[in-house]
Amino acid sequence: MRNDAYEALLAHVRETAALESVAGRLGWDQETVMPRGSALQRAEEMAAMEGVLHARRTDERIAEWLDAVEPEGAVAKAQVARVARAHSRATRVPADLAQEIARVTSVSQGIWAEARAADDVAAFLPTLTEVIRLKREEGAALAQGGDPYDALVDDYEPGMTGADIAAMFGALRPRLVALRERVLGAAKQPAPLEGNFGSEAQLRLARDVAAAFGYDFSRGRIDIAVHPFSSGSGNDVRITTRVSESDPFNCLYSTIHEVGHAAYEQNVDPDYLLTPIGQGVSMGVHESQSRIFENQLGRSEAFTGWLYGEMRDRFGDFGIGSARGFFGAVNRVRPGYIRTEADEVHYNLHVMLRFDLERALMRGQLDVTDLETAWNDRFKADFGVAVDRPSHGVLQDVHWSVGLFGYFPTYTLGNVYAGCLHRALRADLPDLDARMAAGDPSPATEWLREKVQRHGALMAPREVIAQACGFEPSPEPLLDYLEAKFGGIYEV
Amino acid sequence: MRNDAYEALLAHVRETAALESVAGRLGWDQETVMPRGSALQRAEEMAAMEGVLHARRTDERIAEWLDAVEPEGAVAKAQVARVARAHSRATRVPADLAQEIARVTSVSQGIWAEARAADDVAAFLPTLTEVIRLKREEGAALAQGGDPYDALVDDYEPGMTGADIAAMFGALRPRLVALRERVLGAAKQPAPLEGNFGSEAQLRLARDVAAAFGYDFSRGRIDIAVHPFSSGSGNDVRITTRVSESDPFNCLYSTIHEVGHAAYEQNVDPDYLLTPIGQGVSMGVHESQSRIFENQLGRSEAFTGWLYGEMRDRFGDFGIGSARGFFGAVNRVRPGYIRTEADEVHYNLHVMLRFDLERALMRGQLDVTDLETAWNDRFKADFGVAVDRPSHGVLQDVHWSVGLFGYFPTYTLGNVYAGCLHRALRADLPDLDARMAAGDPSPATEWLREKVQRHGALMAPREVIAQACGFEPSPEPLLDYLEAKFGGIYEV
């Protein structure tokens, strides 16, 4: 009888997962191939899907099934726990609010994209105001008297609160700021990569590197989009990238980053396909996979050594005379405007800025009309340069336009987890550098698949990192790694 | 109170239409961009969508709303009539049968594509057997004691039966066969187009011609697929085409054909968007739009005169020395194997073959193991040549693999309707040839938009043709047109 309840519950959530996968594909379509004139119709379609999903997630039978099940074994227990968590959250958000968020955020993304292209903050503010109002309403409904922002963070990183994040950022910030100052003040600065690099050749290289990092093209594809992203789970995990002819590292490292996300989804145990644990467990753990692919592996001296030769073969001489100089160019530290193009030293400062602003917005401590000024003031203070236009400042990220408040801090949490995983896998794989120097990061990507990715959401976020590493996660491994790497490059 | 029921009914079916649009986009995705390894997961997703749609279409409140409404005006009456018809059909098909058909036909298309590529009928037969079993079951559930095939035909062409079609085909066949014999026996035969025509240039030409025929790229896009098709409604209507470097007419006329379908969907009154009447009324009327675009307009002497100059500009000299010779090459009559490449004289003979075979399959008068032999025997009798391989015969069309039984006859019905519409629009537009000779078919496409397309499904299929033409539809205008055109080209 209780087993029947488990089977019924799993069948229900499996069908829900299939419908979520459909909705996800619709999102991919919207950002890659959708005709421009379809936006309003698409908003209706997304709202209808959201209505269906909300009805399924709040189905009254779920509570009955949850009451009746007595799951046995780790897998069944994890499945039930994920359902219970999702059901509890879904029932707290009214259906009409969920549908309104879906409808508004479907249109708002297009408005953001146009405002960004025109550097016109005013054109985006009415929409952003509406998104913030709806997300605060959602956060309040979820928090039931608690902090609305905490409730939104918990959506992306189960178990984390704004206070946890603030504490972690507090531990990171002093050593990061000190490292930044030492590096920017160093006498010897690496030369940047300059020149023109053809789009087609860049995309071919990105595809080859994606394959080297384990991306399975038979279960995915790479397209061009404004903002690189990974989308889907299991056997249909698609990524996007972008190309700048003057900056091939943009395309290349965006791709490696998204391949990290995609590998996590593609490598989950196939037995979990379209079930609650059949996907990455949290945004923080997800980001740990993308960041370790991109930075600790992709920007390592060993891998960039191979990449240097490969790029010279493909693009000819581009004015950098040694692998060591190329390693410096890849890891050049500059206070740039754009988070997704930021070096590893500055990246977390970008995230801290967004965290403080969005937390204040959600708590009603910052008005949206003051947001641009607050952004620009904080940027000047943290980065030492003034924002020159909104597309380099408050309009640069897609996240807020689609209601992703509470998401940004998971980027830095991902870096912290990546630091931990990197320390652990280096201890297990003493010959990794020799393989990466031959363009083969597979010992590391296989280690991550085995230790982290295949488990999907079987364990809690912090738990999967702790068991993979053999120690409790903390910011120190990341800080030690950054100080050693950039201290070496900048000889400080 | 009764008005409330109408509003509630419309809100329900509008959301259903939005979800149908999502499912349609998923079908587009599957045939254009989906990674190969995603097929099984996609089948789960399609089945889940079908489950949702079936539940919505059979919602018990629909019967209550239908009982309560008293629609006023032609639009409201048409909306209610379409809902009543769809609801009646949906409630007759059990949910598990509908889901099983969705699941099987999602996978079966891939199996068909592989079997066609390998010319391996045996690899496809088990799947086809299963599809036929399910569609016979569906037909029987729909027909409730009547002819299962009639019930399936009625899905695509409301009001038509197998007997109606057999009678129409009986009226067409003698004059078609006689015309075919005269043409193939003519002393003077036009020379074919030969040479190699670059894919990129072909696609550019196809896009330009699509725009000339009124395709709105801001609400659509063109991609490559195995089988050309049009998909979607309202503001997101996508078409596909295919390219053969030795036969540019394949890409060009497939594109014009699909633009005819797409124009019908794009040009429906925007007030009807995502409502029951917000799409083409039947497959026969749909096909009348694609066929009149492709043949009566696109293959006319006036338009091919413009096309001749355009192709010489774009591809250089290709060995045809006059516009008149080019017109002959475009309209060359040959007993080819492939329906979608057939000339206007043979096309309807292809359809008649499929109609007789699929009707026999559905009525249990032909076993699937005898299908290939039956196809080959009939083809030899009708076309005078033996099928040389299955991909040129029984495996050539996608339709049966996805369960589209009862669909083929609507192709010829579309030709009959196109013949009627062409007679009527020529009478209204005496200067059309002068405009088409300048590459501009817009007087005709605007006439069709005004007289047919904007109405969507406001009127019954035969009614929309009759009011557009000002006379009752019959096969004679098509036969008169074919005899005049091909009698002229072949001087018979």
From TrEMBL, chains A, B:
Ranges in coiled-coil conformation: none
GO molecular function: metal ion binding; metallocarboxypeptidase activity
Needed co-factor(s): Zn(2+)
EC id: 3.4.17.19
UniProt-annotated binding residues for Zn(2+): H257, H261, E287
GO biological process terms held by the UniProt record: proteolysis
Keyword presence, Endoplasmic reticulum: no
UniProt record similarity statement: Belongs to the peptidase M32 family.
UniProt entry tagged with the keyword Protease: yes
Function, in words: Broad specificity carboxypetidase that releases amino acids sequentially from the C-terminus, including neutral, aromatic, polar and basic residues.
PROSITE patterns recorded: PEPTIDASE_M32
Xref: Pfam families: Peptidase_M32
Cofactor: binding details: Binds 1 zinc ion per subunit.
Catalytically driven reaction(s): Release of a C-terminal amino acid with broad specificity, except for -Pro
Keywords assigned by UniProt, alphabetized: Carboxypeptidase, Hydrolase, Metal-binding, Metalloprotease, Protease, Zinc
Name of the molecule in the record: Metal-dependent carboxypeptidase
Top class in the EC scheme: hydrolase
Residues at the catalytic site: E258 (proton donor/acceptor)
